[in-house]
């Protein structure tokens, strides 16, 4: 599983919104906070909106906010919404791409690892990330 730049930016967007529940952020504010160009932020936000993870409204009174509770959004949801599914090897996504997949020890081992990783990504929620980020922020604040 390789986290692409799109996935990373999607995670940043969701974490930022999750740390500010119920608050509408403009695309400019969001882009600034996640340190990503506004145009790319908008592109990723469009994917997250289409997946039903965020709500994005244009115009006066508009903005971007979470569409669901952070506890209802998994890491897997965010990654899948922002880019095509990824795996350690292409044969794990589609065994038909490799005629050896059915009798290959590499495929079998990687399949097990991929299954464990996918399970963890489904188990970790945005709420978990928000909680951990708030603890990190508190530690940083106390350390300075």
Uncertain stretches: none
Order of the strands making up the biggest sheet: 1-2
Strand content: 5-15%
- SSE run: HHHEEHHHH
Kindly provide the radius of gyration, computed on alpha-carbon positions and rounded to a whole number of angstroms. 18 Å
Q: Averaging pLDDT over every residue, what do you get?
A: 91
State the helicity in percent bands: 55-70%
Question: Could you describe the 3D structure shown?
Answer:
- It is a single chain.
- This protein is globular.
- The protein is mainly alpha-helical and 144 residues long.
- A two-stranded antiparallel ribbon has the order 1-2.
- It contains 7 helices and 2 strands; from the N terminus they run αααββαααα.
- Strand 1 (54-57) and strand 2 (63-66) form a beta hairpin.
- Helix 1 (5-18) packs across helix 2 and helix 1 (5-18) crosses helix 4 (75-82).
- Helix content is 58%, strand content 6%.
- The protein has one domain (5-143): Arc Repressor Mutant, subunit A.
């Amino acid at each position: 599983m390789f986290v692409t730049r799109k996935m990373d930016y999607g995670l940043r967007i969701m974490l930022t919104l999750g740390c500010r529940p119920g608050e509408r952020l403009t695309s400019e504010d969001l882009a600034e906070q996640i340190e990503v160009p506004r145009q790319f932020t908008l592109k990723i936000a469009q994917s997250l909106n289409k997946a039903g993870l965020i709500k994005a409204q244009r115009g006066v009174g508009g903005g971007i906010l979470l569409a669901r509770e952070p506890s209802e959004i998994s890491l897997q949801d965010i990654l899948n919404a922002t880019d095509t599914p990824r795996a350690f090897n292409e044969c794990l996504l589609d065994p038909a791409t490799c005629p050896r997949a059915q009798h290959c020890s590499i495929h079998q081992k990687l399949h097990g690892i991929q299954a464990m990783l996918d399970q963890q990504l489904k188990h970790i929620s945005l709420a978990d990330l928000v909680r951990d980020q708030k603890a990190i922020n508190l530690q940083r604040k106390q350390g300075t």
